[in-house]
Amino acid sequence: MGKAIEAIDLSIYYGSFRAVEGVNMSIRPKTVTALIGPSGCGKSTYLRSINRMHEVIPGARVEGRLELDGTDLYGAGVDPVGVRRQIGMVFQRPNPFPTMSIYDNVIAGQRLNNKRMRKDATDDLVERSLRGANLWNEVKDRLDKPGSGLSGGQQQRLCIARAIAVQPDVLLMDEPCSALDPISTLAIEDLINELKTDYTIVIVTHNMQQAARVSDYTGFFTIEGTGKPGKLVEMDETRTIFSQPKQKATEDYVSGRFG
Amino acid sequence: MSIDTDKRDAERTAAVRPTEDKIARQGRLPRWSTPGALAAAAVVVGGLLAATGAFSVGLFVFLTVVLFAVGLYALSRVVEGARKATDRVVTIVVTSAFLLALIPLISVIWTVLSNGIARFDVEFFNSSMRGIVGEGGGAYHAIAGTLVITALAAAMSIPIGLLTAVYLVEYGAGSRLARAITFFVDVMTGIPSIVAGLFAYALFALFAGPGVRLGFAGAVALSVLMIPVVVRATEEMLKIVPNELREAAFALGVPKWRTILKVVIPTSVAGIASGITLAIARVIGETAPLLIAVGITTGLNFNPFDGRQATLPVFAYYSYAAPGVPRDPYIDRAWTAALVLIVIVMVLNLAARLIARLFAPKTR
Ligand SMILES: Nc1ncnc2c1ncn2[C@@H]1O[C@H](COP(=O)(O)OP(=O)(O)OP(=O)(O)O)[C@@H](O)[C@H]1O
Ligand SMILES: [Mg+2]
Prior knowledge:
The complex is a heterodimer of chains A (259) and B (364).
Chain A: E1 5-14, E2 17-27, E3 32-36, H1 43-50, E4 60-68, E5 71-72, H2 80-86, E6 87-90, H3 102-106, H4 108-112, H5 119-132, H6 136-139, H7 152-165, E7 170-174, H8 182-195, E8 200-204, H9 208-214, E9 217-223, E10 230-237, H10 238-243, H11 248-254
Parallel strand pairs in A: 2-10, 3-8, 3-9, 6-7, 7-8
Antiparallel strand pairs in A: 1-2, 1-4, 4-5, 9-10
Chain B: H1 2-16, H2 18-25, H3 33-52, H4 57-80, H5 82-116, H6 122-126, H7 140-171, H8 176-189, H9 193-208, H10 215-239, H11 243-251, H12 256-284, H13 288-293, H14 312-321, H15 328-359
The complex binds adenosine-5'-triphosphate and magnesium ion.
């Protein structure tokens, strides 16, 4: 578990619109990488291209290479469904399945794929995943209750439990805390810190402090103007990005001198 | 002037406690003023009409409502102010419109009930019209035919309609084919039912020769009417399933078809099921297509692939349009058939609500 990601001259398109241009980025296994940048610069687009989620939008495509431990994720014959089993994703808004109980939500990846599992193995997986997501103690007495009855922060942790229950190598998170209160945010940040012992994590955030708190590496994206493609300006250790970035644009952004 | 000082006083306190005082300063009519005004208007109008000798119920109700609205408006305007007065008038208008719309509905139900109850007996439900002239007999054969033909129509329409809607929402979104299908579904929604009947008749006449009458042909005609309703209802329900749920499933490595089958449809199944039930209720009372394609018979026939079948609407139609001698038993049976139809439709509507409640995603 925990694999490396390598983007090589990756450009991402929505139809004929180039949203992201020429990204070169290596993400080390079992690290947390934060993606920051102004709104609309293509952070989500780039993140979603890592597990081929952006392909669900008609007309979306990429150019260039994206490798997971050396295998090209966009190579001929690679099934996007298989890619998504290895690279999980947590979304901005918590999205538990409303028709399922907390228990079923956690093992939704197995259930929806009709994987047969023994009852005790499932119980074990549910408990491990919920413990992994720091949610076990809060919900262990009501596993059969609907997931949508939890608080927003709990729902988000349920979604994280669901994502790690399929045992991916990489976990992508798109502003996972932006709909949450500070306490739940801290809970999730702690969780990210624990999860990086097993997973490679890429997180998009608008919160500089959060990026500084949780990440080992930070990539700064920017955009020159509307209709222009977003670009990766620089990527480095988080400490370096926030103290002595190489690019003027990065310094302006992290010190708050940017729009 | 005392009013002026009052006003100034009020304004001074208003500056201190603005909201509280605004509420307190405004007069309010007592609760009984609405029924009181209505009663007063009724008495006045009744008296006037009686005095002129031109009393009629319609005129009485109309004038009472008008006087009631005008009177309450004036009263409320003086005591409560313009905004409240307008609110009262609008309430009266909306309520009257609602009651007006209710009149035909209640009158239909009342007429059918009072005329149909006479033959709403056991014999009506357990005997056909075979060998019956005059009194007695029943519509067992017609009820059976209606249920068989409608079930057959549903069995054909539901899969087709459901899959079409799934294609439109999940696969075709925005494509030229999807737009064309949407257009034709819209056109089909507007097809007069007689055309559907002629279509089915013509279709089956190609194989079986002119003069063919077949339960199955009727089911096909009903399908033509039912499919667009099912497509529309399902489409709307699938559309309101949030995209986030689909993405959540995709992100877990669930293929699209499984996502649709296990996430999208279960999430919207309540709405889909009640939409389908309403579509069934919509076609179960169709007369024209069955008149052409299925015809009528006096005996029991469960087989939709073997000749004519009786159905409730057609049974009611023939009993009424071509009664035997004596006339009355036929007319009575027609009303009872109509009553049974209404009961079936009501049961289906209730079922739709029950299904919606049963399947709805729970939060607690
Ligand atoms: N489904 C889509 N179809 C077409 N263009 C899109 C789509 N989604 C995003 N874009 C465009 O791609 C560009 C990058 O969008 P993206 O959502 O990746 O930005 P972001 O950096 O995540 O912004 P934010 O911080 O506001 O979330 C924007 O110009 C946006 O308008
Ligand atoms: Mg975004």
